[in-house]
Amino acid sequence: MKNIKIIFCLIIISFVSCTITEKVHFNNDDSGYVEYIIDYNKYVEMTGSSMDLDIDSIMKASLESDKYNSLEGISDFKFNNDKNRNELNISYNFKNISALNKVIQETSELAYGADEDNTSETKVKKEFIRKGKKLIYLSPKMEKDSTTESMESISEFFNYNLIISFDKEIQKVKNENAIISGDRKSVTLKGNLFEILSKEYDSDVTIITK
Predict the structure, then answer these.
(1) CA dihedral of residues 87, 93, 94, 95 (deg, nearest 10)
(2) Inter-residue contact 13 to 78 (CB < 8 Å)
(3) Do the beta carbons of residue 4 and residue 103 sit within 8 Å?
(4) What is the pLDDT of residues 89-115, one digit of tens each?
(5) What is the pLDDT of residue 18?
(6) DSSP string for residues in the chain
């Protein structure tokens, strides 16, 4: 799983500005899919170039070498860099919540600041928990340290959208920052990436479906 972390590290170091949209969809049996969309149009506008790094070859090599589709409970792992739309797309299917949690924990450790052994000052924990009709999303949190403080000056350039969707309708959501869609089948958290990951921001969500 080490190379999957390269993907999220490159997102941070490659772009001066981007919008990250994370979509997680749950079928009725708690299988589903995850899609990350990294929109780097602002980066192109600011720099006049599509990429500073050969991100295509690096990511494709990472995906091929680790054979992500052979991971237990994970399938159809894909990466695409659409240079016409200035978007990176990373997606995969998961068989159950356990498989989903395994992958997102591996990726979030680097994406949100923890080191390989999770021994740095910045500890992360991101997972989904199913309790009957309740689905609980526990968001990663970043402790303030010298690294995060130095990045606060550019925090306005990093926007984050989390969209959690279902086949069935949502009955209730416990989080005032979460927005329920018109068809009541999805919940969205959106804002500045560093604000959402701060301990002061309420980004944990409990969703009760019908």
Answers:
(1) 170
(2) no
(3) yes
(4) 888 999 999 999 988 776 654 444 444
(5) 78
(6) -HHHHHHHHHHHHH-SSEEEEEEEEE-TTS-EEEEEEEE-HHHHHHHSSS-SS-HHHHHHHHHHHHTGGGSTTEEEEEEEEETTTTEEEEEEEESSHHHHHHHHHHHHHHHTT--TTS-SS-----EEEEETTEEEEE---B---HHHHHHGGGGGGEEEEEEEEESSPEEEEE-TT-EE-TTSSEEEEEEEHHHHTBTTS---EEEEE-
Closest by Cα among 149, 180, 152, 144 to 165: 180
Q: Is 109 helix (H, G, I), strand (E, B) or coil?
A: helix
Cβ proximity of 104 and 127 under 8 Å: yes
Segments in the chain below pLDDT 50: 1-8, 10, 13, 52-53, 65, 109-123
Q: How far apart are CA 203 and CA 192, in angstroms?
A: 12
Tokens encoding 132 = 């009957």
